[in-house]
Specification:
Elements lengths: L4 H7 L7 E2 L2 H22 L1 H31 L4 H10 L1 H37 L7 H5 L2 E5 L7 H16 L3 H4 L10 H6 L1 E5 L8 H38 L2
Antiparallel strand pairs: 1-3, 2-3
Length: about 250
């Protein structure tokens, strides 16, 4: 009697005595690795990041100066919304500020993405093909990356897995979310590169410190959103005060 592909893949777990890692475990491991790489990213990209941030600040200052003038014009010459929007888009100062801000933010994002991709490549390939068979983030959770047959990854195989992971990112993380599907919990890049992320049988749940790490990330994301929201509100209030002061 022939066995199915799923049964053959499942039997590959038995020799190493491990079980598939869950999506939560894999996310916590990735976020720990990202936190380790962040200081290196800031150090290596300091000059480029400072340049991009300076350009973004200059563009924002230009917009802040243009906004009161546009609001004064809107009050002095009331127009339909469509005509007002066309006038704003045609304004060279406003258009220049928007274009400058878009360029600065695009350059900033590109710099971060390229540096992170380079550092993550060296980090992932180096550690996953080492005797650890895991990055420090994965090792902290007792995870291990292996080939489909349970063997240790070579450097070439680890590189293949890293390159395949770009498809999981480009699919708007749908490729990563596939790791939530039981029983094998394979992400898209696991399937493409014929690899697995496994855990010890007793490590089915996240440790308490991992939950606190997730709570800290949520709090940081909320704080960042509030900071942006309050910053925009302060800028709008300042523009309104400037307009009202000129009346």
């Amino acid at each position: 009697m022939q066995t199915s592909a799923a049964e053959r893949e499942g039997s590959a777990l038995e020799p190493v005595g491990l079980k598939p890692a869950s999506l939560k475990q894999r996310y916590v491991a990735w976020s720990l690795d990202a936190a380790c790489l962040l200081p290196l990213l800031l150090l290596l990209g300091a000059s480029h990041l400072q340049h991009d941030m300076a350009n973004a600040s200059a563009a924002l200052a230009s917009l802040r100066h243009a906004l009161p003038r546009m609001m004064e014009s809107m009050q002095a010459n009331p127009q339909p919304t469509a005509q007002m929007a066309q006038a704003w888009l045609a304004d060279p100062v406003l258009a220049g500020g928007v274009t400058g801000l878009e360029t600065a933010l695009s350059d900033l994002l590109l710099t971060i993405m390229l540096l992170y991709a380079l550092l993550a490549l060296l980090w992932s390939v180096g550690f996953e093909s080492s005797r650890w068979q895991a990055t420090p983030g994965k090792r902290a959770l007792g995870l291990r990356v292996v080939a489909a047959d349970g063997k240790k990854l070579t450097s070439g195989h680890a590189l293949q897995r890293f390159l395949a992971a770009s498809l999981s990112w480009l699919s708007l993380n749908i490729g990563h979310l596939m790791a939530a599907l039981p029983p094998r919990h394979l992400a898209l890049h696991d399937r493409i590169s014929q690899t697995r992320v496994l855990r010890e049988p007793q490590d089915a749940r996240l440790p308490a410190w991992a939950w606190w790490w997730l709570i800290l990330q949520g709090a940081a994301a909320l704080a960042g959103f509030l900071w942006l929201f309050l910053g925009l509100q302060v800028a709008m209030n300042a523009a309104m005060q400037q307009v009202l002061g000129g009346l």
